[in-house]
Every structure is written in C-alpha cells, then in structure tokens.
User: Fold this.
Amino acid sequence: MATLTVLNNPFNILDRTAKEVGHGVAIFYYLNTEKKGVEFVVSLNGQITEDYTQILQANDSLAFVAIPKGGGGGGSNPLRTIAMLALVVMAPQIAGGIMGATAGSVSAGLYGGLSGSLIFNGLKIATVLVGGLLVNAILPPASPSLPNNSGDLQSVSPTYSWSGSSNAKQAGTALPLMLGSGRVVPPVIGSYISLKDDKQYLNIMLAVNDGEVDDITEIEINAQPITNYNDITYEITKGTASQSAIGNFRDSETTVSLQRSLNEQNAVTAYTTAGNTVQELEIVMIFPKGLFHVNDDGSYVSRSVTFEISYRKAGDTTWTLFDTPTVSATYKTTKRLAYPIKNLPPAQYEVQITRTSGYSTSTRDTNDLALDYINEIVYDDFSYPGVALLSINAMATDQLNGSFPMITCKCTNIGVTYPKSNPAWSCYDLLKRAGISDSDIDLTAFTAWSAYCNSKNLKVGLYLDTQQELQNALNMVSTLGRATVVQFGSKFAPIVDKEVDIPTQSFLFTSGNIINNSFSLSYIPFTDRSNTIEVTYYDETDSYKAKTVQLQSHDFDTSTIEQKASINLYGCTNRQQ
Assistant:
C-alpha cells in the first residue's frame, strides 16, 4: 500500500485528506480522480515530479497540493505563496530526514513507542506548522488596507476629475444623484445628428439627476455660458413622474457614422442596423468636395450622379428598391442630402447603396460620393419619468464643431420637508433610496443632527455620478456634518462629533475598575505625525472649482521636516465649513 495526501489549501494544514491507496498503478490514475479544473503540484516521496506515468511502489508517499488561483491584487505576495507550496511538498522529505537522523533514538523511546508511519506523518505536520511560522515571520501576509471614506471620485468621476472632465457616454453609466447644489457634468443618454436645410444639428440629451430637482440653471458648453453661442437651444425637465418628452427626443434616434466612399461605377456598400426595432431609416449621402464641372473659361456647371437605395429586413433574400436619386447640380462646397425611409415595421434592417453612374477622374470634375451616416429611429414618446433631463440642440458653426462638446450645468436638488443641503437629511435620503424603512432609522437622532448642522451652517453639495457602496456614500456625506452613520443592530443612527453637557450620572474608568492588563494605549511616533494638512473643497463662489487649503501645525517652522496629509472633502462648497 502507498499513502496519498491531498492538501486543498496550502495555507491551512487542516484542509487535507490522507488515505492509503493501492500501489502498482500510475500516478495519473489517482490525479484524474481529484477535482476537475483544479491544478495540483505532485510530490512523490518528497520530490516534485511531472512524470505522472510513474508506478507507485509499496510504502511510497504521494502528495497532491492545490495551486492557488489569482494573485497580483489585494496585497498578495507571490514569494510567500511559492515558499508555502515548497514547504508543503518538501515536508515528507524533511520528515524522512529527521527520522533517519533520530533512528537510533526510536528504540530508546524518544517517540513514546509510536509506530513508524504515525511518527512519519506527525513529523510532516510539524514540519509544515513550524515552517509556516518561519515563512510568516520572513514574508508576513499583507495587512488589509483601510477603506477610504471619501471614495475614489477623483479618478472616475467626470464632475470631480482633476484631469479635465467630459460627459460620460458609456452604456451602463450610473444614473447620477445630486445632494444639495453644485456644478455638475451629467452623463449623455442620447445623441444624434439631424440635417435641416443643409445644416447639421447636434442633438444631445443628458440625465442630470435621478429624481425630481428644484432647478437646472447656468448651462455651459466648453466652459462658456450657453448664451455666448449662436443657434443653440435647450430644454429641461425637472424629473417629475408626469413630465412630457423633451426637445428633439420624442423619438429615439441613434446616429451611426459610416463615411463609406462610392467612387467608381457600380460601387456598393451595405449596412445592418444595430437595433432590432427600427421604424425609420434616415440615410445621409455626402458630396465631400462638392459637385461640379469646370469649363475652359473657368466657369462652373452642374454634374450628375445617380445611385440606388435599397433595403430589406435582416435575413430576407429580396431587396426593396426605395429610390434611385439623380443629383444634378452645382455644389462648390460640401453637400449632404438626407433620404428618410419612414413607417417601417419594427425590425432589424439591411441597407444597400449602389452608385450606378460613372465616376470621372478628370481634374475638371468633382463628383465624389459617400454614405456619410445613417440615423436609426424608433417611434415613441420617451419622457423618462423621474429623471431630470437637459436637452441641447446645437447647429454646427465656426463656434462649435468637430469634437463632442463638454456640457455642464448647475443642479439644485434641496426639497422642502427634508432639505438635502443638510448632511443629516442627505444621509436619510440615501438610506431611503437603499430601501431602508423609517422603522430602521433613528429619526430622533437624525432630527437632532440636522439641527446641529443648521446651527453650524454645515451643508452638502455632492454629485454622486459613479456607482458607490451605500456605506461609502454615507461616509462622504456624514463627514461634512461632522458625524458618521452607523448601524446599531437593525437601526441606523448618527454619531456626531460635538460638545455635549456632562450627564448627571457619569462613569470614570481608572485603574481601580479596569481588569489588569485589559487596557493598553499606544501613540503614533512623533516623527510620523502630520504637521501639514491639505484640504480640497469645491468653491461655490467660483463655479464650484476645486480649491486647496494648506494648514500647518502651530510649531511648524522652516527647519521642520514636513509630514503632509491630504483630504478631499467632496461636497464641501465653502471654505468656512
């Protein structure tokens, strides 16, 4: 017989199984019976082996050690992992060496008369335990990092980013929440390009807040007031349950830029819609250099270009010819023409454009043709109830063209009964949004906290535009009210850092009523204590721009070594606070 030991967790010696197995078979016979999808290190008699065809002999010691997955994050130490694995697989060899060195003492009763196999297995366990202590001493496991109460908004939030912000456009972006008032960079939830009288318009819809707001004002485009631009209009909805569809977004339109050239006769390009409920297709063709012929005397005359527009439902084999336009004109600059196919049954569609006229390469002719973009349109009055919206309709001009503009606005979301500008009621709002009932909230304590915030003029102006854990969001807001919200059993209540009157009955702990050795006190070394603190806030008097204030200890001088600490007070909008 041979011995098989399987260690499922190399860092927990107790998570193992040991059993006697038959010899005379190959190692892979037993390896194939273990957990599928788990990799093992194999040790035979203390030697790591990759030759799984070896035949087990009587009294062989076979060990399978599971290889940990992952690593590289969360403070893992690969050297420590390797050391523990090596220790486990080498334990049989070390135990055998110890037995060989003490063989003369076995008969003298050094091991209490135990059998050789029990002695050997006991020495293996002792080797791993003692070796593990040594590995932990040399390569200790990493301590978990403390959570950052202020979150990491600076690196992920468009509103609080240091590196310059832009409106989020990715699918799955969190619906933002404004607590109080502030200048915000809301995410884009819809955009498309429309063509009217040969002029292009960029239509943008932004989700400003999840829920009803008091107002949306002071709209800026690329850090300039919207009133500084010509040919731009906007609309807002405040997020009521009964609000109407906004601006040019009564239907859902998506612009897909293509820019596919058709500069030879019978050139063909095809496109399949991304949506599968499309009800209208707006096909926009472009003459990027104009359309004309130059005569010998230098005068311009018209040129003609003909092409076909066909469509079909995705999966069909027969094309439907929609139109065969012949464009005969003199365009000296870029010209776009739109061809809408309306009132289609909701489906996914394929579009095919074929140039049927010839293409002249003469230097006197300009007749380039391309498929510029396609708008996919779904008919519906999307009103987005319960979401405060901002809609922009901007004509492409010399003031505004090219890259997607950055749009900001001031959002005010305070309310009446429980004003969200108060840190206490902002935390209350977060708890309610998380589905926590009033019976699990200490409303008396929150009311007292709100009164304290009012007495100290403590306010909040925080825009949560990235996904946040509830406790992390509570920490950011409660810090502004000099408190923290904690859960006592099933109830949430604030602990406020404020002066209180000493109660009539109080308790003083001294050496006379503390159990011996149960109390200890430690201090941060003097050289590690911060003597300079940098505090970042967002100044409401300067368009909510980030400002940094530096404070130094009373005994700081030019000969002092600076020990700096930084804190970012997201939602703090005035220096006095």
In short: Residues 70-76, 105-112, 141-150 have pLDDT under 50 and may be disordered.
